[in-house]
Amino acid sequence: MPLPRMLRVRQSFPDRAVKDIPATVAAELRSADFASKLKPGSSVAIGVGSRGIANIATIVRAVVDYWKSVGMKPFIFPAMGSHGAASPEGQAMVLGKYKINEETMGCPVRSQLEVVALGTTPEGITAYLDKLAYESDGVMLVGRVKWHTDFEGIIESGLYKMMAIGLGKFAGAQYYHTFAYKIGLGTMIRSVGRQVLASGKILGGLAILEDANHSTAQLTAVPVEEMEAREEQLLELVKSWQGHVPVQELDILILDEIGKEISGAGMDTKVVNRGVNGEYNPWQGPPKIHRVFVRDLSKDTYGSAVGMGMADVIHSRILPKIDWKPTQINSLTASSPSAIRTPVHFDTDRECLERFLPTVGKHDLSQVTIVRIKNTLGLVDLEMSENLRAEIEANPNLTIVEGPYDFPLDDAGNMLPLEASHGH
Question: pTM to 2 decimals?
Answer without folding.
Answer: 0.88
